[in-house]
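Here is the promised in-class demo. Please do not try to memorize the tokens; focus on the logic of going from shape to residues.
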């Protein structure tokens, strides 16, 4: 029995493996919301952590006898921390962490109040086995012996056998999974969290190889695709607002369901509701962000490219070549600036804004920030706009100015003096507070617009307001159901990804609601056409929302999409009008287009193709 020569080493190792296996199973089963249907899925869930538990802890075999016990503990601890990071991330995003998310931690201020709000007392159970192993390791008379080559080989063989069994069972359960690898949740459920991380690692390496092989031929192919899908602008609006300023306002976590909504008889967004009455309002407009959140929204708007499937482009590719909105406008004599009451390094903005062509970034260091006028990530919205006005007045027209609000950010913290609405009373404090922070944001906007009117900018600027991404994630959906008074179906869940888009043009006094289906990727061409700028030479994937030719179509980063009549989500096709489940063939006509959009856009970024473009 080779396994029991040098017994204490093996008993210790095998105990650690079994405990880590059970823990990995528990994470998927009890700490996340993955639903298993049927016995086979349960069996898969039990089996999938075994191979990785064996392999991860066998790393200790590479260390000398003396260090073997301690390396088991260290590796176990690090792997547990990874599981814990997954749990925290999952609690908000209903998604698993990716390598870029971990590496971008320093760019998002590390661990914050948002993270603390996601912790739970039950989390200590994740560390109980480690504590027990530690005590045992300290007490035991430790007599480690060398691990022979044969023993190592046998260990790896056992692990590989479990892995093969896992793959075979998954194939039997869902043969389609191997075709569409968009969905991280499905991969984790099928192969376990640790194997998911291995898959993630490999998929991060692929773009590195693609970059080395990039050539101008790749660009030409994509140029052809873009040209084929180009549509003509709205003939009446094209160039109507030439040389006007552009004011873009990012509304943190603001979703369409707050617009025109009353809570306890009070309007949540009284100012925005009034503004809509004298602006264009797009009520079928969706956010398309992924793990880069606010920075993804900014990227979508300035470039009309899709964000990446994992991590933020701002953090991952700040050195790549872009042809962004500030650069395009610069050629027409515009200056471009950004205002944001947070550290300039957050989301790596300082680097990325240089690449995008911004002339000036007014960040935390340009504002007077005190204990009283800050909350959560930074300056509260009211003082933010107030203090920005001083700089705005110094701007030479024409300018493009972007304002990024912050107060309505998870976990929606608010000081008592800023509570301007009675919260709803769902069982979720996060959801209740959300309505108060949205109401506060609305108040800040009202005051800012008063200033814009007083300074004459209201009449000489195209003003675009957009919700950057959702605020209430699926994890808090139950609270939202209580407030909205309805059960959320898959189609309703997609509808919740709508964010408001409001465009006010100079001199406009009448409102118009436009129902065209679109997303953040469409903002740039829409805006450029109002300014009379021809977009046919750009590499972009958006379309003018005012164009009569704009089709109802929006693609999401996870491969879901919405058309005029259908919603494709979670690998299922639904009829939009009544949410009825349809045959997949009804959605199939859009599959190729959806994949081409995402893949072409990714290629532009990964292969840095804009370096080959003549500008
Ligand atoms: C931070 C702000 C919020 O500067 O952009 O970031 P988010 O978490 O929404 O991406
Ligand atoms: Mn945001």
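The designed amino acids, position by position:
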């Amino acid at each position: 029995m080779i396994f029991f020569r040098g017994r204490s080493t093996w008993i210790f190792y095998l105990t650690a493996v079994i405990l880590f296996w059970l823990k990995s199973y528990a994470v998927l089963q009890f700490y996340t919301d993955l639903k298993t249907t049927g016995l086979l899925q349960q069996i898969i869930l039990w089996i999938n952590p075994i191979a990785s538990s064996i392999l991860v802890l066998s790393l200790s075999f590479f260390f000398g006898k003396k260090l073997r016990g301690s390396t088991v503990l260290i590796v176990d601890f690090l792997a547990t921390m990874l599981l814990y990071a997954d749990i925290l991330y999952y609690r908000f995003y209903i998604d698993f962490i990716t390598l870029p998310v971990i590496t971008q931690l320093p760019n998002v201020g590390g661990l914050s109040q948002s993270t603390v709000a996601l912790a739970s007392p039950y989390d200590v159970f994740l560390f109980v086995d480690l504590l027990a192993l530690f005590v045992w390791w300290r007490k035991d008379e430790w007599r480690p012996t060398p691990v022979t080559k044969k023993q190592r080989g046998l260990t790896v063989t056992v692990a590989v056998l479990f892995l093969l069994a896992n793959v075979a069972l998954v194939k039997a359960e869902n043969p389609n999974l191997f075709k569409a690898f968009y969905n991280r949740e499905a991969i984790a459920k099928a192969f376990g969290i640790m194997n998911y991380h291995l898959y993630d690692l490999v998929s991060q390496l692929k773009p590195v190889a693609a970059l080395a092989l990039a050539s101008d031929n790749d660009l030409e192919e994509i140029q052809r695709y873009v040209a084929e899908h180009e549509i003509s602008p709205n003939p009446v609006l094209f160039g109507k607002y030439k040389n006007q300023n552009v004011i873009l306002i990012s509304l943190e976590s603001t979703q369409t369901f707050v617009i025109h909504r009353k809570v306890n008889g009070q309007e949540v967004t009284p100012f925005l509701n009034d503004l809509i009455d004298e602006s264009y309002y797009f009520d079928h407009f969706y956010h398309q962000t992924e793990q880069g959140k606010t920075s993804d929204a900014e990227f979508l708007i300035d470039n009309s490219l899709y964000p990446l499937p994992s991590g933020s482009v701002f953090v991952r590719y700040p050195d790549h070549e872009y042809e962004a909105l500030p650069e395009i406008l610069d050629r027409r004599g515009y200056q471009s600036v950004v205002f944001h009451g947070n550290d300039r390094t957050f989301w790596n903005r300082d680097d990325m804004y240089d690449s995008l062509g911004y002339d000036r970034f007014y960040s935390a260091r340009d504002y007077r920030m005190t204990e009283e006028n800050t909350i959560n990530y930074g300056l509260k919205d009211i003082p933010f706009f107030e203090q920005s006005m001083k700089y705005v007045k110094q701007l030479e027209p024409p300018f493009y100015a972007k304002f990024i609000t912050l107060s309505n950010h998870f976990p929606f913290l608010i000081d008592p003096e800023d509570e301007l609405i009675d919260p709803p009373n769902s069982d979720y404090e996060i959801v209740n507070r959300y309505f108060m922070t949205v109401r506060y944001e609305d108040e800040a906007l009202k005051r800012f617009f008063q200033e814009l009117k007083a300074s004459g900018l209201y009449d000489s600027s195209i003003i675009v307001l957009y919700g950057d991404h959702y605020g209430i994630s699926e994890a808090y959906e139950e609270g939202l159901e209580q407030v909205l008074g309805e059960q959320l179906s898959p189609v309703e869940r997609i509808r919740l990804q709508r964010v408001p888009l409001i465009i006010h043009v100079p001199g406009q006094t009448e409102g118009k609601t436009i129902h065209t289906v679109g997303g953040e990727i469409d903002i740039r061409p829409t805006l450029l056409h109002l300014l009379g700028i021809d977009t046919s030479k750009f590499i972009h994937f958006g379309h003018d929302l005012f164009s009569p030719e704009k089709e109802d179509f929006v693609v999401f980063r996870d491969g879901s999409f919405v058309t005029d009549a259908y919603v494709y989500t979670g690998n299922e096709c639904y009829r939009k009008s009544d949410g009825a489940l349809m045959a997949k063939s009804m959605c199939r006509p859009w599959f190729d287009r959806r994949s081409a959009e995402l893949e072409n856009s990714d290629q532009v970024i990964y292969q840095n193709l804009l370096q080959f473009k003549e500008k």
